[in-house]
Amino acid sequence: MKIEIKRLDDEIPLPDYQHAGDAGMDIYSAESKTLAPGERGLVMTGLKVAVPEYHAGFVYPRSGLALDEGVTVLNADGVIDPGYRGEVGVLLINHGQSEFEIKKGDRIAQLIVQKVEEVEWKEVEKLSRSERGEGGFGHTGKN
Asked: What CATH number does residue 32 fall under?
């Protein structure tokens, strides 16, 4: 699939896969910023993308940042809708115990582009039965 992308800063790499077959492409920071413990901040990527209709871009955390630094995507999963044409930003939060410094060009998140189905609701008086029923929030029957 080919997707239109506009780089606002030529120094910032385009999203890229680190290994053949990876699902997520690393996306990079277009700015330097420091997040104190507990602080959240919008980090701009210097990119605009044209996600095709019936697809969405999903911004996911980088597991290494979460494990090593306690930094993750606050609104995971962030969604880039097909009609959005503004600069992509990543909302990060520092759950770690010390300040986290983001440098321009650092890998800050992952982007996965997926096909999505458009839903049309069919209102009914009663839902069809399922094996699980109404059990939720840990009620799968297994401990």
From this structure: 2.70.40.10
